[in-house]
Design goal:
Elements: H1 17-35, H2 44-66, H3 74-163, H4 168-218, H5 226-292, H6 306-313, H7 336-346, H8 349-354
Helix pairs in contact: 1-2, 1-3, 2-3, 3-4, 4-5
């Protein structure tokens, strides 16, 4: 208890225990009302008012203890007043504890709002990725349409090739167009696979982001959001690594396509060389037919025997080229067996094309 330096004659009369008990009851009711407010928040004015009343109650208790005992029963009222004062102190402690807890909750709410703002920014980024996904889907549909168009073009050229296989020039041109369209078809197929890979990657990332967003919306706002943010960053890094791996695989496929294109070019060159050899063979055949008629003295020094010529004609690789020069077969020529063999050789064009 503090000592009051005021002279006894200047002091105010000490309050009665009944008045102090009424004041203590008012203080306790004020504390309880502050602790049970409807909105769950503590007002600074209410706390200050209760603290002032509690100080007034403490001062009155000091004056009552320093004053001489009044009527009988004052000691019991003083003890009751002390109990009320201790209860008021306990209520005030609870009030201060609640203010501290409310301040902590307010800080956590501010952090949660900051996390919410950051997550909204990330959601806007994911919406951008969603738009990119839609664009990739449109490109995928366009690539599929182009593939279908090229397939129809290939089928049309195949039919035309079958119709014009008799003409060597048309056949060579059709083969060139077919090879060019095959290369374009392979390129479009590679683009389609790349678009499908990217589509699957973006779809998976979008589903993951949607699940994470739903979970964040349903979670407790007082919970710590740092593990969630860290998980989102780890998932983003993992998806970027998978995207880089897919791009590396696409580069490998592109190198393989170029290698196959070079091989096709070499095969075309070999076909041209074989066709040139067949042209030379037909020249030798015309020389032989002229020698049999007695028009060419080179028949006496012929280096290509009839058996060797028949072996060359029996080779399936050379059968398609025999139809390039039908005018070389003379109906009046004496080599009737060879002329009769030519239609059967021409029918094997499909097997020769496969060979």
């Amino acid at each position: 208890m503090t000592h009051d330096p005021t002279p006894p004659e200047a002091r105010e009369p000490a309050p009665t225990p009944t008045a102090l008990l009424a004041l203590a009851g008012r203080v306790i009711r004020g504390l309880r009302a502050a602790l049970h407010e409807a909105d769950g928040s503590l007002q600074q004015a209410s706390v200050a008012e209760v603290a002032s009343a509690l100080g007034e109650l403490s001062a009155g208790l000091v004056q009552l203890q320093q004053a001489p005992a009044a009527e009988g029963g004052g000691g019991l009222e003083l003890e009751e007043l002390r109990g009320q004062l201790q209860a008021a102190h306990r209520e005030l402690g609870r009030l201060e504890e609640r203010r501290r807890v409310e301040a902590e909750l307010r800080d956590q709410l501010r952090l949660a709002r900051a996390d919410t703002a950051r997550l909204r920014a990330e959601e806007r980024g994911h919406l951008t990725r969603t738009l990119e996904l839609e664009r990739v889907r449109a490109q995928l549909e366009e690539a599929r349409s182009e593939v279908d168009t090229h397939r129809a073009e290939v089928d049309r050229l195949r039919a035309r090739l079958e119709e014009t296989a008799v003409e060597a020039g048309s056949r060579e041109e059709a083969l060139k167009q077919l090879n060019a369209l095959r290369l374009a078809h392979e390129e479009q197929a590679a683009r389609l696979r790349c678009a499908e890979f990217l589509n699957a990657e973006l779809r998976q990332e979008l589903e993951s982001v949607r699940e994470e967003r739903d979970r964040l919306v349903k979670r407790d706002p007082d919970a710590d959001a740092e593990p969630v943010a860290r998980q989102v960053l780890e998932d983003r890094a993992r998806l970027e690594g998978e995207r880089d791996q897919l791009r590396a695989d696409l580069r490998v496929l592109e190198e393989s396509r170029r290698y196959q294109s070079r091989r096709l070019t070499r095969y075309q060159q070999r076909i041209q060389d074989q066709e040139q050899a067949l042209h030379e063979l037909f020249s030798e055949l015309r020389v032989l037919r002229g020698a049999e008629d007695g028009d060419d003295p080179r028949a006496r020094t012929d280096a290509l025997s009839r058996a060797q010529l028949q072996a060359v004609l029996d080779n399936p690789i050379h059968r398609p080229a025999l139809r390039q020069e039908p005018e070389a077969v003379d109906p009046e020529a004496p080599d009737a067996p060879l002329r009769e063999a030519l239609p059967s050789l021409a029918k094997d064009e499909d097997s020769a094309r496969q060979a």
